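Q: Given only this backbone (197 positions), what sequence would you predict?
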């Protein structure tokens, strides 16, 4: 995380609402958010907003050469660096709200797991809904969506709105423990059984 901090900080300074954080996520948060990635079989795992790859590394460790890992990143600097670092990951420079088109263009099935590093609290209502609809449409009925929120921002209006949207989009939404070791502290949403639109 420390070696990626200058890159992340630079992108935050240039694009604060798209980057959404000053530092990349830590390894404990990465472990928690990727826990839904199966350790057997050949799952399709989609990662949204991978940034410098804090969650990418954890996903690759869990897959251990199995399945397929698609990373969707809008920021060109992050996308290029991620592609150089992780040859086994298919990095696509695209908007997360176009996830259904990304999968269709690559003739891929619905995802088993979608892991999101997107800055939901920095998004307006329309953007939150558009991306969440894309996630829901891209998941298998048995699929799992995981994302995180910063503890200090939970009471903000965008964060409360996002939690409400999650409960409408999935039959089951559970909230993980607070990862106090992360800077800033964060928690993970584990969402299962997407509701049909």
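A: Predicted residues:
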């Amino acid at each position: 995380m420390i070696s990626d901090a200058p890159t992340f900080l630079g992108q935050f300074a240039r694009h604060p609402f798209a980057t959404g954080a000053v530092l990349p996520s830590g390894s404990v948060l990465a472990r928690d958010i990727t826990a839904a990635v199966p350790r057997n079989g050949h799952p399709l795992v989609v990662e949204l907003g991978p940034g410098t790859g804090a969650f990418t590394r954890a996903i690759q460790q869990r897959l251990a050469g199995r399945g397929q890992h698609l990373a969707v990143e809008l920021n060109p600097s992050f996308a290029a660096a991620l592609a150089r670092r992780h040859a086994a990951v298919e990095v696509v420079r695209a908007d997360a709200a176009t996830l259904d088109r990304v999968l269709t263009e690559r003739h891929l099935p619905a995802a088993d797991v979608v892991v999101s590093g997107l800055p939901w609290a920095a998004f307006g209502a329309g953007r939150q809904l558009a991306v969440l609809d894309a996630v829901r449409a891209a998941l298998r009925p048995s699929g799992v969506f995981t994302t995180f929120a910063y503890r200090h921002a939970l009471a903000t209006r965008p964060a409360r709105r996002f939690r409400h949207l999650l409960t409408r989009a999935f039959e089951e939404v559970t909230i993980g423990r607070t990862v106090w070791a992360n800077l800033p502290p964060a928690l993970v949403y584990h969402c299962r059984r997407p509701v049909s639109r």
